Amino acid sequence: QGIVYPGGNYSAPPFVAAPFAVPDQSDSMLYLAFSEYFFQTSSFAYYTAGAFNITITEETCSYFNISTEIFGSVIPEVAQYSVTPYPVMLKLMATETPIISLQQDSFTIEIQGSMEVFAVLPDSSTQLLFTMSIAANTSIAVNIFDQKLMGSLCLNR
User: Fold this and answer.
1) Would you place residue 147 in the very low, low, confident or very high pLDDT band (cuts 50, 70, 90)?
2) What confidence tens digit (pLDDT) does each residue in 70-124 have?
3) How far lies 105's CA from each of 38, 109, 143, in Å?
4) CB 53 within 8 A of CB 92
5) Is-contact 120 86, C-beta < 8 A?
6) Where are the alpha helices (DSSP H) in the chain?
7) Are 43 and 54 in contact (CB under 8 A)?
8) Are 90 and 116 in contact (CB under 8 A)?
């Protein structure tokens, strides 16, 4: 049962380690087990270090061409503010430590966060358009199929 601490910050995590048992099997050469506590402290360390804060700009995300025009078609106030289409910058931030829980054949991640949406103006300054709260609950199931580790991701809400 391991614990992960944020770099340079040795403080007790807000979790209590629960006992867990590894099945007694002897038909394989190697068994690997991770406790829920290991994942919870890892999540806490990453959250404390700011690893769940992401800024998405036009330069960093070539898959999407996000502009005020796109948001203006969904949110009328954005269309009123920005007649000329400007690129958009998104700041995604976790507002609480993500909660990771283990089940028999999968694990669940619950993330609470917020997203700030900015218009990037021609002089490279930014103007806040809106802020929204985000709550996501995702399940991930991991299986070994044809000697390959496979995963499936399901967005629960």
Assistant:
1) confident
2) 777 778 777 777 677 888 899 999 999 999 888 877 888 999 999 999 988 899 8
3) 17, 14, 8
4) yes
5) yes
6) 36-48, 68-74, 76-81
7) no
8) yes
CATH architecture of the domain with residue range 36-155: Super Roll (3.15)
Two tokens, residue 6: 């944020």
- Cα distances (angstroms) measured from residue 139 to each of 40, 74, 78, 92, 152: 15, 29, 34, 20, 8
Instruction: Collapse the DSSP code of 43 into the 3-class scheme (helix H, G, I; strand E, B; otherwise coil) and give the result.
Output: helix
C-beta of residue 97 within 8 angstroms of C-beta of residue 149: no
Q: Which value, to the nearest 10 degrees, does the dihedral of the CA atoms of residues 75, 77, 80, 84 take?
A: -50
Residue whose pair of structure tokens reads 């993500």 in the numeric block: 98
CB count within 10 Å of CB 116 equals: 16
Rounded to two decimals, what is the model's pTM? Answer: 0.72
Question: What span, in angstroms and rounded, lies between the C-alpha atoms of 60 and 18?
Answer: 40
**Res 91: pLDDT:** 94
**Tens-digit pLDDT profile for residues 3-22:** 776 677 666 777 777 777 77
